[in-house]
Design goal:
The structure is a single chain. By secondary structure, the chain is α/β, with parallel strands linked by helices. It folds into 2 domains: about 210 residues, Rossmann fold; about 35 residues, no CATH class. The chain contains 7 helices and 10 strands. Strand 1, helix 2 and strand 2 form a beta-alpha-beta unit. The radius of gyration is 20 Å and the shape is globular. The two termini are about 40 Å apart. About 30% of the residues are buried. The structure holds S-adenosylmethionine. S-adenosylmethionine binds next to helix 2.
């Protein structure tokens, strides 16, 4: 039997069942995409794209774009307004109907990111996959599709679990229009995103030199950063917007134990030293602070 979702959704301040659009919020729509927390996240990511895309267009000659997991089309319309020839898809028919109603000139399709038949859509110079990878049961299958669909450049924005290893974390999700379609998803770590990008066949993978100006992309006191972005490309990516990353490699023997505890102590110390100062202080507060 399917389990009822309990818990909070990353990036939202409220818990489920969600409040409906009502007089208090003064919303004329019942779509989560139009709620203030969602549009704020859209605007800050669009501001970053406005900064970096002109240089990408110049370096790679980008003209056609695919917006994967487009929702009701915020990014599709934004990219069209930047001058790209835009196609888009989403697995939910109600999102696509609404996207078509809002933006009649754009080609919107109903399609599943995990379905190999998706590759029939063809190839696009730029593929934008924002807010989708962590909603999937099988993110690696999605990356294989993304590789097949990408002619030149793929940009991914995703929630990333705070884990150094290339790992996936299985998580329940609520059944609403801006979440996954299976009520269950494999959330990747940042290392997992990098590894899947390399293993799906992209020769160049990079992280963003700067991230959107939004709290989800920053760590704070008592909370780790939970969103990230990556670029995967068929040609080299470089400064000033991208920082190349290497493919993460697996530890030689994750099953090995250390009865003396010495290796573990050194490993923990090494990890602690790698953290930024803010995270070091948070970790010390958690360990030695009151309570
Ligand atoms: C969090 S919203 C992201 C919307 C938009 N891309 C953004 O970043 O603001 C996730 C979207 O992915 C869609 N989605 C979920 N699972 C999908 C799948 N397997 N294939 C295609 N779209 C999917 C949802 O219907 C929803 O519209």
């Amino acid at each position: 039997m399917r389990q009822k979702f309990r818990g909070s959704v990353p990036g939202t301040r409220w818990r489920y069942p969600r409040p409906r659009a009502d007089g208090n919020l003064n919303l004329s729509t019942d779509f989560n995409f139009d709620r203030p927390h969602a549009t704020h996240l859209v605007e800050t990511r669009q501001a970053l794209l406005r900064e970096i895309l002109p240089a990408c267009v110049q370096a790679q000659g980008l003209r056609t774009v695919l917006d994967a997991g487009c929702g009701v089309g915020y990014f599709s319309a934004f990219l069209r307004d930047m001058g790209f020839e835009v196609s888009a898809f989403d697995a939910r028919s109600q999102n696509i109907e609404e996207a078509r109603r809002r933006h009649p000139g754009i080609r919107f399709n109903i399609a599943d990111m995990e379905d190999p038949a998706l590759q029939k859509l063809g190839q696009f110079d730029l593929v934008l996959c924002f807010g989708l990878v962590y909603h999937l049961e099988n993110p690696m299958r999605a990356f294989r599709n993304l590789r097949a669909l990408t002619g030149k450049l793929l940009l991914v924005e995703s929630v990333a679990i705070p884990e150094q290893k290339p790992a996936l974390y299985l998580r329940d999700e609520p059944e609403i229009e801006d979440q996954g379609v299976h009520s269950f998803a494999a959330y990747p770590s940042e290392g997992a995103l990098h590894k899947m990008a390399y293993r799906s066949g992209f020769p160049y993978v990079a992280r963003f030199a700067s991230l959107p100006d939004h709290e989800d992309f920053r760590s704070a006191f008592g909370r780790r950063r939970f969103r990230t972005m990556l670029a995967a490309s068929m040609t080299p990516l470089g400064a000033p917007h991208f920082v190349p990353v290497e493919e993460p490699h697996n530890p030689p023997d994750p099953w090995m134990t250390d009865p003396t505890g010495v290796t573990k102590m050194f490993r923990r110390f090494g990890k602690f030293m790698e953290k930024p100062w803010q995270e070091k202080l948070t970790a010390m507060w958690r360990r030695y602070g009151p309570g």
